[in-house]
Every structure is written in structure tokens, then in C-alpha cells.
């Protein structure tokens, strides 16, 4: 079973740690999407649980067209045009292109495609949750994760996502 825990607020860390451990112990895969890893230092996640940091994903966000035009196509051209003994020169040329052309252009374009932080966050969450295929269950662990979960349910993959909410047990 592929389970994704949305724990952006880190208010129910103990429950996420326990439930993700149960999923991994049962032979499934557990992925925890969190906002700040510093808030999870006291409650470390069990071994086998994948951790995705939202801040790192937002920082590395780049549209597919930009990746294709600035990085993939020039790299492919260098590999195709410099085969065999010229491979080293082609790789140096590709590194120089990335350093002097692609990265500066990407930094300037980043101001444009990262202009709307809410749109970037929703795209990044959608990519992160759906990266390993469609999950069997998305668990909303805290109130801050509710909005991204709602967007996933509305704009998710072709099949319906199963979204569950963690409700702590009462003081019975």
C-alpha cells in the first residue's frame, strides 16, 4: 500500500510517526511531506519512510519546458555531436554551457515562474504526491495540510484519490 502523509503543520508528529511506522511494518511504502524538518528533530521518522521537504521542492521547482530547453536538449546535442574520443570535450562544453548560459537564464526566468507562490506550492505538492504513481491513501495529518489535500482531490489524477483525515482520540 502506498500511503502519503501530509504533515505541513507538524502538530501531530507522534501520530504520523506511529502510523507511518505501521505502514512500513506492514510492507507498504510511506511518504511524509513536511514543511520544516527542524520541527521533526524530537520525533524522528522510522527507517524506510521517505521524507519530502516542501521548502526544498519549492526551491528546485522548474517547469518542464524550461528544463527541456535549457538543460536536456543542449546536453543531448553535446553527447550526440561529440562521441567516442571527443566525449570529454563535449562534457566540458556542456558544463560550460550550463554554468555560463543555462543557470543565469534559469535564475532570471525563476522570477517569472515562481511569481505566484501559492500556484508553485500546489504544483509542487501535486508532483511530490503523485511522483511514485497514484497513492492508495493520502492522510491529512494537521490543519495546515487541508488546503493542499483539497487541491489534490479536485485537481488530482484521473482516478479518485482516497483522502483520510487524522482525528486524535478523545480524553476518554
Low-pLDDT windows of residues: none
Main structural class: alpha/beta
Question: Beta-sheet strand percentage?
Answer: 5-15%
For the biggest β-sheet, the strand order reads 3-2-1-4-5
Number of strands: 5
Question: What's the CATH topology name of the largest domain?
Answer: Rossmann fold
Largest sheet: 5 strands, parallel
3D shape:
elongated
Rounded mean pLDDT is: 86
Q: Give me the CATH architecture of the largest domain, please.
A: 3-Layer(aba) Sandwich
Q: Report the CATH C-level class of the largest domain.
A: Alpha Beta
Rg, rounded, reads: 20 Å
Identify the CATH homologous superfamily of the largest domain.
Answer: Glycogen Phosphorylase B
Number of domains: 2
The N- and C-terminal alpha carbons lie at a distance of 31 Å
Give the ordered list of helices and strands.
Answer: EHEEHHHHEHE
Share of helical residues:
40-55%
Count of alpha/pi helices: 6
Amino acid at each position: 500500500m502506498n500511503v502519503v502523509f501530509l504533515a505541513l503543520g507538524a502538530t501531530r508528529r507522534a501520530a504520523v510517526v506511529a502510523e507511518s511506522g505501521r505502514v512500513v511494518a506492514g510492507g507498504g511504502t510511506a511518504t511524509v511531506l513536511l514543511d520544516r524538518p527542524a520541527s521533526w528533530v524530537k520525533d524522528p521518522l522510522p527507517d524506510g519512510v521517505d521524507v519530502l521537504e516542501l521548502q526544498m521542492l519549492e526551491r528546485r521547482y522548474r517547469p518542464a519546458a524550461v528544463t527541456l530547453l535549457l538543460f536536456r536538449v543542449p546536453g543531448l546535442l553535446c553527447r550526440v555531436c561529440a562521441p567516442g574520443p571527443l566525449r570529454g570535450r563535449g562534457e566540458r562544453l556542456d558544463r560550460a554551457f550550463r554554468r555560463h548560459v543555462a543557470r543565469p537564464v534559469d535564475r532570471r526566468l525563476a522570477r517569472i515562474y515562481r511569481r505566484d507562490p501559492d500556484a508553485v506550492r500546489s504544483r509542487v505538492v501535486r508532483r511530490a504526491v503523485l511522483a511514485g504513481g497514484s497513492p492508495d491513501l493520502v492522510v491529512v495529518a494537521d490543519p495546515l495540510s487541508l488546503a493542499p489535500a483539497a487541491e489534490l482531490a479536485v485537481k488530482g489524477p484521473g482516478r479518485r484519490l482516497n483522502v483520510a483525515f487524522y482525528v486524535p482520540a478523545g480524553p476518554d
